[in-house]
Amino acid sequence: MGSVRRATRRKVWVARRKTHRGTWPRRCQPSARAASNGEVPETVEKICATCGRPFAWRKRWERVWGDVRHCSEGCRRGKTSSAGERFEQAIVALLASRGEQASICPSEAARALSGQKFRSVMDPVRAAAFRLAGRGVVRLTQGETELRLDVVPRGPFRVRRGPTFAR
Q: What is the spatial distance between Cα 86 and Cα 90, in angstroms, rounded to a whole number?
């Protein structure tokens, strides 16, 4: 008798899981979540100040959503330093010195600031490129395909002028 009950429970659980696979249940959709005062947050998605990737509203942040600037604990601990701002400035300066349709590789900005030790600063330079892309200053591309900011790119990517690039 017990094994029949267990098997039935398992079938129900598997059936439920299959109905929600790949989609959010209606009550859990980010746009349907309400803030503590009963209102939907003004923005359901923000851009991380450290890595530049978008992140969504979470229930645990409902009281402090206006103050949240980082997507994770790791990004909060590794806040942007003056070096990160220098990397952003180097990327913008390199793009400004090139033509309208020209692109640069993030390694060019790293080489401009770090010389032969550029490989050790590639991750912060890539993060700086993501922050600039989140603000619309630059676009990130692989070939002719524009990268989505919520996906970590595999392999090399190029940085091009974005819609809000200061000319």
A: 6
